Known about the structure:
Structural class: alpha+beta
Bound molecules: 1-hydroxynaphthalene-2-carboxylic acid
CATH superfamily: Jelly Rolls
Helix content: 10-25%
Number of domains: 1
Strand order of the largest sheet: 1-19-16-21-14-13
Amino acid sequence: MASVPKPGSTGPDPASARQEFYRRMDRDNLAPLWEVLHALVLPQPQSPCKPGYWNYKAIRPYIMEAGRAISAKEAVRRVLILENPGLRGQSCITRSLYCGLQLILPGEIAPSHRHTQSALRFIVEGAGAYTAVNGERTTMHPGDFIITPAWTWHDHGNPGTEPVVWMDGLDIPILALFDAQFAENYTADVQPVTRNEGSSFASYGNNLAPLDPVAPFGKASPIFSYPYARSRETLAALAKNGAPDPCHGWKMQFINPLSGAPAMPTIGAFIQLLPKGFRSSPYRSTDSTVYSVAEGTGKVKIANEEFAFQPRDTFVVPSWHAASLEAGDECVLFSYSDRPAQLALGLWREHRG
Ligand code: 1HN
């Protein structure tokens, strides 16, 4: 049997001897670390995830065409996936997160199921559809932030008169990484309503809580809908009081009122206001972040790429890419990332400037 020549011996070319050595170990599911070490341990994040931008006006016709191509019920979820240009075919917008735009037309339902993936919805267009989470419905309005905590029954319906489109953000690649996925369908298309609309918000959403609060969704927030009217009012009040942060303007995160923690354990969600004419300092962090424009026009520079944005557009800033924001008129941006997961594991870093 061939073997690696002893040091100093004259023999076969060492490079080809090594290749032959690798081929022999390969048959036993072994591989030499020294050939790949440089690609495994990087001096700084170097992701195949690229900056990305989706102009809503340009992609809306595809979303509406999907409405003619298939029903919500047949599709189960009628969604166009926003695939990162560097991760095509992988159904993800960053390496850890999924993003899609979901359409539900008047009179339609999307059947009830549950899974271990957590989901968020950010309402992009239209009002009057609902999402139901474990027996309670919440009506959607543009800018509302809604969560579907892991393993909760959820279905959607549109009893209204207009198409409703929202952004879905899920931690699908995180669950896939851990091979911790479970899912099941409910026994009926529409789960029964067991609580009045607004009862979760009344119990936990007004700086009041029951004397013996139970966390109905475990680590996730007991409030599953954060109305835009409230978020917007908060941002407007903040903007009247004090200077904006040089990188973020006025930026807040959606929290679990029982713990003060992010609304979900894996996905963090944020809303920020940039005053008219604001030009941010560059900012980078290890949590690749997906943005949806709620209000205003502006520009985002991500490393060497620049995108002009309008309301309803989406863009993604990959990990450790310096991003600068410029507001034409006053802007409100929603965003989400895997920051809570990184923080929980002690991995998150940021850098200003
Ligand atoms: C899902 O359950 C929804 O409930 C949306 O609306 C998108 C993408 C992959 C897997 C499950 C929803 C999804 C999803």
